Amino acid sequence: MADLKAVFFVRSFAGNPEYAESKDLYQARPPGTRKVRVEFVDGEELVGHTRDDPAKRPGFFFSPFDLQSNNLRVFAVFDAVRRVERRL
Questions:
Q1: 3-class secondary-structure state, position 54
Q2: Which of 1, 52, 60, 77 has the fewest CB atoms within 10 Å, i.e. the most exposed one?
Q3: Mean pLDDT computed over 47-62
Q4: Rounded CA separation 22/66 (Å)
């Protein structure tokens, strides 16, 4: 996993390179989840919600807030993450 950034579960492999995903953390989230802002070492930043406790594993799953995102779910590998901000 040392060379892996993340595993992206996507709607389409083509995606939409022109779409700008929302980074708004002020959105409702499913009950029992926590809001997170994830910054990868390559500078990519994603926001979403997670049920995982990121401190206990080599990575963690989260889902984007933006319902139009091509990403349905992401497994982020800690070695490729610069920072995780957890929000209430």
A1: helix
A2: 1
A3: 84
A4: 6
